[in-house]
UniProtKB/TrEMBL annotation:
Residues spanning the signal sequence: 1-22
UniProt entry keywords in alphabetical sequence: Heme, Iron, Metal-binding, Signal
Organism: Pelistega indica
Name of the protein in question: Cytochrome C
Transmembrane segments: none
Phylogenetic placement of the source organism: Bacteria, Pseudomonadati, Pseudomonadota, Betaproteobacteria, Burkholderiales
C-alpha cells in the first residue's frame, strides 16, 4: 500500500508541469488577479502565498514553446536541453556517475517554485559565488551541478549539450527582468528558521522510516526499475557527493520542507524537516572533489564558504564522515572544469 501511495504521489507531483502550460505569470505579487492567485494555490497547495513585494514567475512550458514563433533550430536546442534536464541519466558514464537527474533537485522540470526553479539563475548571473570565490556565469553553475550533485564530469563549456541546457534555462526565464532588484517568489529552497531543538539523528531516522523509506529505500539507495531512476539515492555511491549543495543540512531541510513527501508537501513541521536532513546528511557518500587527501584539512579549507553547514569531517555516531578516498562510480576525483577565475586583468 505504501509503495502504491508513493508512486501515486510521484505522479501527482508532475501535475504542476502538465497543467502549467495553461498559465504563464510574470508580475509583482501586488498585481496578481484573484484568478491568478487561485491558479497558484491550485498549483502549489499549502505553499506560502506570494507577498505584494515579491516578483512572481511561472515559466513558459514546452507546450508554449511549440506554440511560439521562434526559429525551429532554437526550438530544437531548447527541446534537447529539456530532454537532458529531465533525463540526465542518458549521460551516465560520460558526465553523470550516480543516479541523479537535474529534476531530482530542481523539480517540476525546473519550473516549480520552492523547488530550486532554475530560471532564477539566468536572471541573477553572472554573480560572485562564495563557494568557489569568484564570479560565475550560468554555464559554470551547471558545471557545479554535474561535478557535485551528479558526482560527474561536466559537459565541456560551449559544447552542444551545454548550449542546449543553457537554452532551456533561458527559455524558462522568459519574461523576467535581468538582475531584478526585488525578491523572487519561490526562488531556491527558502531557508527555514533555526530549529527549536538541535537537529537529531535518531528522530530523523524514525521520520525517514515513516515517510521516506518506501520510495528511497531503508538503505537510501533509491529505486531503479528497468534501468530508469524512479526515486534518487539519498546517500551511498549513487547519490550526490560531499561537495553538493544538498550536503548542507539547512539546504536539505528546506528542500524536504517544501517538496517532501511527494504529493503531500509541505506537511512536515520545520523541526521534522531539520531532523530528517540531519539523518540523511549524516550518512556516507562519495568524496568532495576538492579533497586534499585529509578530511580535517579539507573541511578547514572550505569551512567558511561551505562545510560549516555540512557534517563532513565531523564525527557522527562514532564515525568520522568523509574520512575515505571513495569517489563513487567514477575513476577521478576532481573534474578539470572546476578551476579558479580572475577578472582583474593581472592574472599570470
Amino acid at each position: 500500500m505504501l509503495r502504491k501511495f508513493s508512486v501515486l504521489s510521484f505522479i501527482l507531483a508532475g501535475v504542476f508541469a502538465s497543467q502549467a502550460h495553461a498559465v504563464q505569470i510574470s508580475k509583482m505579487g501586488k498585481d496578481l488577479t484573484p484568478e491568478e492567485r487561485a491558479t497558484l494555490k491550485a498549483m502549489l497547495p499549502n505553499a506560502p502565498e506570494p507577498k505584494d513585494d515579491e516578483f512572481v514567475h511561472i515559466p513558459p512550458s514546452m507546450a508554449d514553446l511549440e506554440a511560439s514563433n521562434i526559429h525551429p533550430k532554437l526550438k530544437e536546442a531548447i527541446k534537447r536541453g529539456y530532454d537532458l534536464f529531465t533525463n540526465t541519466q542518458q549521460l551516465k558514464g560520460k558526465n553523470v556517475f550516480n543516479n541523479m537527474n537535474c529534476v531530482s533537485c530542481h523539480m517540476g522540470e525546473g519550473r516549480r517554485p520552492f523547488a530550486g526553479p532554475v530560471w532564477a539563475a539566468v536572471v541573477t548571473l553572472p554573480d560572485f559565488r562564495g563557494k568557489n570565490g569568484h564570479v560565475n556565469n550560468l554555464e559554470e553553475r551547471i558545471v557545479g551541478c554535474f561535478s557535485f550533485s551528479m558526482n560527474g564530469k561536466p559537459p565541456e563549456y560551449g559544447s552542444d549539450d551545454m548550449v542546449a541546457l543553457t537554452a532551456y534555462h533561458q527559455w524558462l526565464a522568459k519574461g523576467v527582468p535581468v538582475y531584478p532588484d526585488v525578491k523572487l517568489y519561490g526562488r531556491g529552497y527558502p531557508k527555514l528558521k533555526d530549529p527549536a531543538e538541535k537537529p537529531d539523528f535518531a528522530r530523523g531516522k524514525a521520520l525517514y522510516e515513516q515517510n521516506c523509506a518506501a520510495c528511497h529505500g531503508e538503505n537510501g539507495a533509491g529505486l531503479v526499475q528497468n534501468g530508469k531512476v524512479q526515486f534518487p539515492a539519498l546517500w551511498g555511491d549513487d547519490s550526490f557527493n560531499w561537495g553538493a549543495g544538498a550536503a548542507r543540512v539547512f539546504t536539505l531541510a528546506a528542500f524536504i520542507k517544501y517538496n517532501m513527501p511527494l504529493g503531500k508537501a509541505p506537511s512536515l513541521t520545520d523541526q521534522e524537516a531539520w531532523d530528517l536532513a540531519q539523518y540523511v546528511d549524516g550518512q556516507e557518500r562519495p568524496q568532495d572533489p576538492r579533497y586534499t587527501e585529509d578530511v580535517k584539512e579539507t573541511r578547514a579549507k572550505y569551512e567558511k564558504t561551505f562545510h560549516k553547514d555540512t557534517l563532513y569531517g565531523l564525527e557522527v555516531n562514532g564515525k568520522l564522515l568523509g574520512n575515505h578516498k571513495n569517489v563513487g562510480h567514477k575513476d577521478f576525483l576532481k573534474p578539470d572544469a572546476l578551476r579558479s577565475r580572475d577578472f582583474s586583468g593581472q592574472a599570470k
